[in-house]
Amino acid sequence: MAAGSTYTPIATTTLGSAAASITLSSIPSTYTYLVLVLNGSLTTSGSSVWVRFNGDTATNYSSTILYGTGTAAGSTRETSVSNGCVFAGYQQGMSTSQSTAIMHIQNYANTTTYKTTLARYSDASQEAETAVGLWRKTPEAINSLTAVVVFGSRVFSIGTTLTLYGIAAA
Amino acid sequence: MLNLISAIHGTGVAASTNSYESIATVTVGAGGSSSISFSSIPSTYKHLQIRAIGRQSGANTGYAAQLRVNGNSGSNYTQHRLRGNGTTATAAAYTAQTSISIGGWPAANSSASIFGTIIIDILDYTDTNKYKTIRYLQGTDQNSATDSNIFFDSGFMFANTNAITQIDIIPDGTSFVQYSQFALYGIKG
Questions:
Q1: What domains are defined for chain B?
Q2: pLDDT bucket at A152, cuts 50 / 70 / 90
Q3: CB contact under 8 A, B143 and A136
């Protein structure tokens, strides 16, 4: 019944210098799901992190966010934005403390559905949050993605890692 | 094992690549499907995970779906919910339900090509000494306030502590439509 082991590392980037974005390209289409893991910090606190697909910077992205800041829980949304799908630090901003985010990119290789993401983020000094994202470009397979710091002149710190895994279905 | 547990709880550590196995996948064809069933689930894993995208038929912009284990449809399920609808966060609890409600899914009156998604974790599914915690993260974003939600829920079936060998997912709309896909994975302990 089982089809064998999966959850396979595809690519990892570790920043050797501060950068405002990290791109992983040439993503193979041989899996069903992608799991993107961010582990790191910003050099200056205060920006959220988003994920764009296939270099698309049009207003094709939206997200619904649920968060807790330590003093309150809330929910908000972004519609028709170009930043990407929400990945990390939406409400309080990613900080200079080490934090982690994981995004599940579901059925990324099909050409029949818009792509939906599920993200979870936690920063012990700031917040915990989760978000569902939608990429509404005419359905196409995802072959590259970019995690981008969008506000101000904030950048990822040296040593920040972005890792991509692939999961196959039976 | 630490990596494994960390991975299923989404803390950002990778699963060991030889511990996560595809068990079965259901892909809905052109005729739609009124239920998704995984039966004869092998007992050789420690945890189960279901990954899916889905969209339903029925004249609405969103429907829930229901999850049952081992074919049990009695009032034997309990559930806690944390939900965000893009405006407010709400919490709720449900007892003596006939299923676990699993989120909100787009339907026939939603914009074309929008699918909802879910990741369900079923922990210690063969342990006959305890109820089986079923946790999920589910979301649908429709680029509007209409039926765009994210759910972070957990629940269990309390009729017995039998090992889980069957999981059924039933749409509240008429059916899951073409291109919906549900994949079951086993995670070794």
A1: 21-187 (2.60.120)
A2: confident
A3: yes
